[in-house]
Amino acid sequence: MTVHSILKMGDARLLRVARPVTSFDTPQLHQLVQDMRETMQAANGAGLAAPQIGVDLQLVIFGSDQPNPRYPDRPLVPDTVLINPEITVLDDSLLDDWEGCLSVPGLRAIVPRFARIRYRGVDPWGRPIEREAEGFHARVVQHECDHLQGVLYPMRVRDFTRFGFTEVLFPELAGVDDD
After folding, report:
1. Among the listed ranges 16-25, 51-60, 63-72, 77-86, which one has the minimum average pLDDT value?
2. DSSP for 33-94?
3. Average pLDDT over every residue of 159-171
4. Element (H, E) at 29
5. 5: helix, strand or coil
6. I need a surface site. Which of 74, 105, 124, 128 has the fewest CB within 10 A?
7. Catalytic residue among 86, 130, 144, 167
8. Residue 72: what pLDDT?
9. Phi-psi domain of 171 (left: phi exceeds 0; alpha: psi -120 through 50; beta: other)
10. What is the pLDDT of residue 38?
11. Which helix H or strand E contains 144, and what residues bound it?
12. pTM of the model
């Protein structure tokens, strides 16, 4: 298993549109998922997209059965590996809330996201996944899937007076790795 370096904003690879996964239940795919999980956990991430470690595939992981130290007051999101995701908006109202990103370390901003979505895709074995999500769960899914389209959350920020350093905006998170 390998903890990978996470690409940072400014790296052109983060701006590419990822390719669909075409082979499932392979040793290479399972290894990639394991490496991504270890990388996400090492960085205290709420999620991670394959492009963030330089892999140009439509694969995201998110969630955990434990509270996330970077988002301690947020509800748990189901531990999920989602491949070739599709999102359908179920409620076009937008909710503003704080986001951070492992590829944009040390910063947070208010980002608008759809309130309710349905997402579908497949797991590493090619079995279908389909769920509805709202709130923080929906936010995490939209954030991670944005990476597959070459979109980083600062591209969605509307009010840059609500964008800044985590240590200034959230001093209570001091000591939690935000890199």
Report:
1. 63-72
2. HHHHHHHHHHTT-SEEEGGGGT--BSEEEE--SS-BTTBTTSPP---EEEEEEEEEEEEEEE
3. 95
4. helix 27-42
5. coil
6. 128
7. 144
8. 83
9. alpha
10. 97
11. helix 135-147
12. 0.95
